[in-house]
Amino acid sequence: MSSTTVHIAPSILSADFAHLADEIAAVEAAGADLLHVDVMDGHFVPNLTIGQAGANYLTVHTETCPHLHRTIQSIKEHGVKAGVTLNPSTSLNALEEVVADVDLVLIMSVNPGFGGQSFIPACLDKLRRARQLIDRTGSQALLEVDGGIKVENAAEVLKAGADVLVAGSAIFRSPNYADTIAAFRNVAREL
Question: What is the pLDDT of residues 9-35, one digit of tens each?
Fold first, then answer.
């Protein structure tokens, strides 16, 4: 983990969409730092979700973007921080050419599209290598991990270099959001 404090980002993919405003208010009151919104188009992943009303960060999957530099530049020109997302089987080589230009690197630790999946353990090595690349290049990008993140595996994910933990099911399927977010923070403090 870098010298910055860990950020907890509940993924609303696991929220109750019928009560989305209440769910968002509840996780914000519980101490969430960020909200993670998946924008899915039914083509890159097999399902659809809601679109963004506004965002601080916008990440794009490298696999969907033939002109990655141009896309990153366009995102930044619109006053939004740009990030790139790498699927579990996507090589870090896709990141090497743009790491200095992005504000966020998102490593998927499940195949994207559905909440509640199990963490793919091989992604730990990818996280470590992504952290090394970010540090070696002097990039200020945050390193985020999304998929199968639970309190039980948070320590190893943070030790691998993550700055941001996207936890959907772990938070939204827990009986008490604040207790779960506090448990994530306690794991980070104990490292």
Answer: 888 877 787 788 888 888 999 998 988
